[in-house]
Specification:
single chain, mainly beta, Jelly Rolls, Immunoglobulin-like, TIM Barrel, 6 domains, 13-stranded antiparallel sheet, 10 helices, 66 strands, about 10% helix, disordered N terminus
Length: about 950
Amino acid sequence: MSIILFRKMRGILAVFFFFPAIISFAQDSPRGTEVKYLSGIDKDHRVDWEFKIDKGRRSGEWTTIPVPSNWELEGFGVYNYGHDWRDSLPKSDATGYYKHRFSVPATWKGKAIEIVFEGAMTDAEVKINGKSAGVTHQGGFYRFKYDITGLLKIGQENLLEVTVKNVSANESINQAERDADFWVFGGIYRPVYLEAKPKEHIDRVAVDAKADGTFSVDVYLANIQKSNSVEAQVFSLDGQPLGNAFQAGVAGKEDKYTLKQQFTQPKLWSPEFPNLYVVEVKLKDESGEVHTVKERFGFRTVALRPKDGFYVNGKKIKFKGVNRHSFWPNSGRTLSKALSVLDVNLMKDMNMNAVRMSHYPPDQHFLDVCDSLGLFVIDELTGWQSAYDTEAGRKLVKELIIRDVNHPAVILWANGNEGGNNYDLLPDYPVYDPQARTVIQPWNTLGETNTFHYPDLDYVSDVLANGDKIYFPTEVMHGLYDGGHGAGLEDFWNVMQRSPLSAGGFLWVFSDEGVVRTDEGGRIDVRGTYAPDGILGPYREKEASYYTIKEIWSPIFIDQQYITPQFDGTLKVGNRFQFTNLNECKLQWSLVAFPKPNDERTDSTILHQGEVRLPSLEPGLSSYIHIDLPAGWEGSDALYLTATDPHGRHIFTWTWPIKTASQFAAAIVDTTSAQIANAREDEQYIYMEANGVEVKFNKTNGLIEGVKNRLSSISFGNGPRLTTENSKFKAISHHQAGNKHIVVVDYEGPISKLSYSMLGNGWLKLDYTYALFGDYDYMGITFSYPEEKVKGVTWLGKGPYRVWKNRMKGPQFAVHQKEYNNTVTGIDWNYPEFKGYHDRMFWAVIDNEEYPITIVSETDHIFLRLFTPKPTGSKNVDPIFPEGDISFMDAISPIGTKFQTSDQLSPQGKKNQFRNRRDRQRLWGATLYFDFGAGAVRDSQ
């Protein structure tokens, strides 16, 4: 059985192992700290303890529970969402009783031994062999420990008893941690372990490593009797020494010593280049080494320059950030390092550079991963909208900082959230933090910072143009279902990108906080509108905003809208990195060809490809790049351009159609067929027919009323109708024009004229134009089709996700396919959603139970609307849709956020403006081709 070790950033090692295990923290030193896990290490590696709960499910019986865990997820107690817990009293006020028997090896005799709890919700009383280990710990999100040396039976079995109350005896802790807008749980949900150190030992260290190579480490000692010096040596991660060792003498009973050294040109830490080092600190006496600890750190300097901005290593930064709950659906707040790696990679894949811990300190392994993969962190003291009292808060500030102080990723502390701020705690932060990081109070103005939440664009523009604080909303674009996040972000980011006072912002929130209800058959509960706020689903399913954010926050900026025949391969590119020269990245191009409708394959074919030579371009600058396109490139269907960063991480792939919609249509629809279309009529209808297809038009309103081919009737019709200000029907007529037959419909109103041409091969051509003046939610034409008959869609356009007027970025131009679903974003997680608007449809095949309907557009910039998404009941994120089922739109509606309507957010969220007078020129319209099964014959077999 293998033991796999990975380094904890707090000077210890977390371990994936077969239990029990004793691991030395300083593996290359016999004088390192040793650890023995009493629990498992994460949600996937747990140890059963004896357990009883006094209220709720399975109360009153002694049984077992895996540790770490939240007891609600294991079938005990009752579920509560934040501020609701008081409504379910007394059952929600539960006490869990834990017992665990363990032994301590004889080799630990004479050592100082502590028991460490990484987190227990909320009040924890600890006993060893029936005796109290110390004062009850209060506060559910913090590491705490007790010296239990005198309580242990060395070499024998010991009894650990822990009484955990999910509701604190301190009312300010309940108000800060449980009267909150997030799920609240109970239990020992993070690991528990023993630490054994020499009697005289290093208690902890606090590093301050600057970008100029200035290094200092505060070394805190305990029980010093004979030790006479402390020594430090810095190493690279591969074990190479950086400079020489340096030391300080130990005299008297002082418990803190500071060691200093100056290094020359160390590799700096940043999110783009997360270079790390290790400092090895040794406590020595006359005979040599007494105790050794190792701590990982990074050289970097963080500075807030008043009326200017945040600077890291002398470079001005803008946060492209997100808020993150520590959460997993079937384990609550019990997580794993693997999940931390997953989440940080997802953030970085969205081109984010920052994350805010909302609203409590995360697992230490999450910060480890932020250090190693590179992500700025705001580390937060809990206090959702109420603060800890000063006595409790001062203890928890200390526990927060001494655990997390050495993470280079942590560049700001947050003293509570949205009014949950105890100003009396502010002086405590620099006491434990030798780096004296800036402290903020999210939603408030504090010092030189303004972090006001959920602004509209007018507020952002005003404070950046006329204010004097560094502005970065620590919550912005509040997601709800499919609203927020990417919707409106482009407008906000353009303003933030230009302003010197902007330090960016943090989206709310990373993932839906949906919990598996073990009391309700395992359904995932997002507590109504409280928790379906994520860019991702609870199991990290990607919503459309994931890709929108990825494009808007791409550190390589290319704002090319179209590729025209005059394109000479030159593109303007902007470097929006903060520490990376453009020539450290890679940019590859490819010319592709797409399949046609009803081809068996949907993937594209690469015709030509190559690499773009990138210029030396520092952050903040723009230049030009050149793609060496081959002769005849215009014959390709599309151009793809893919960027990767210096570490090979995908930044974004830009896609442009090369051919116009009319060129695609010409290659698909044969308009020169020698076959002949014809027509007939009766009192009610005109019938056009060719190659086995018949289309029926109602003579009283001009609408299609029925379609059939040789095999099937197709329930497509009741259109086209203009989606607003529908025109008044005047007349319908038809005539032969060579091999084609034409139906003309005359209107009084916006639609001036509408005509159908039945081609001899059975394709139906629709030409329509209309003129409008005013502001509209949407505009286009619409048809009806029974939703229950639809099976899926394949189309060439931008996808596969739907779009809104204020969320157009992210989709890729390609052939996409998706099955029908009735997904409600944030309640169901079958993505991408089927229903909604789809951008830049060139052709589409709607699969159904009758016969596939193929539509080809000869007009660029047509949106394909597929049905109406199921309403959520939340007005801001339930955009208005036109009548009908399948529509072809020139303009579509935007979407809002949880707190704001779309028009309150930004210009992209306002209505569509049609400003030309209808009598001046042709304004809007399209040419569409429909294939309802031309030439279809029954299979002979």
